[in-house]
Design goal:
The chain is built from 7 helices and no strands. With 189 residues, the chain is mainly α. Helix 1 packs across helix 2, helix 2 runs antiparallel to helix 3 and helix 3 packs antiparallel against helix 4. The longest helix is centred in the last third of the chain and has 23 residues. The N and C termini lie far apart (43 Å).
């Protein structure tokens, strides 16, 4: 009798492709109520998945949470700057940290390799070491980073194209969640 190879299954926090799509669309829709529902779903994922949660999902949810708080009008300008600032600093640090080797590589070089605008790294530097930037610059940084995450991670994971412009992507990048169920941190590095 011939044995069939066992299929490797990866356990993920989301129920399936439909839930993943729903959260992705909810996060990027621009409607604060739907964004909050998507954020609640991501929080549930985090409680199930813990430290295995993909960094892109974590960063996206933090940045969208800032936008929802901003739209609510409940925070003062300084509080919003700090909120956006923390999310932006965390994004740049987490994205570039995985690319650091034994030798320290400048953040600007790592960002350039990842196609992250250099001014976002400069904004992170100001938030970390300098005077707090204006709220408008933090909002713009958030929008640019969310767009980067959408194009670099979310749209590629399930072959969705939320991007306005058409992009030529390999079939490998278009694989569905079943074939690429791990959706781990290394996928979008």
């Amino acid at each position: 009798a011939r044995k069939r190879p066992k299929l490797l299954r990866t356990v993920v926090a989301w129920r399936g492709r439909a839930e993943w799509d729903q959260v992705m669309v909810g996060l990027y829709c621009g409607d604060s109520r739907l964004q909050q529902e998507a954020l609640d779903r991501v929080s549930a994922w985090k409680s199930r998945y813990g430290p295995k949660m993909p960094l892109a999902v974590d960063c996206t949810s933090e940045l969208i949470r800032c936008k929802v708080l901003d739209a609510s009008g409940r925070l003062k300008s300084d509080e919003l700057i700090l909120s956006y600032g923390l999310a932006l600093v965390r994004f740049v640090n987490l994205i570039t940290e995985r690319k650091q080797k034994m030798v320290s590589i400048p953040l600007r070089q790592l960002a350039k390799e990842a196609d992250i605008p250099i001014w976002v790294v400069d904004l992170r530097h100001e938030l970390t070491h300098g005077k707090l930037p204006p709220l408008a610059l933090c909002r713009k940084g958030c929008d640019v980073v969310l767009d980067w995450l959408r194009k670099t991670y979310w749209s590629r994971q399930l072959g969705n194209n939320l991007c306005e412009e058409s992009e030529d992507e390999d079939e490998e990048e278009q694989e569905g969640m079943e074939a690429n169920a791990e959706l781990d941190n290394d996928v979008w590095e």
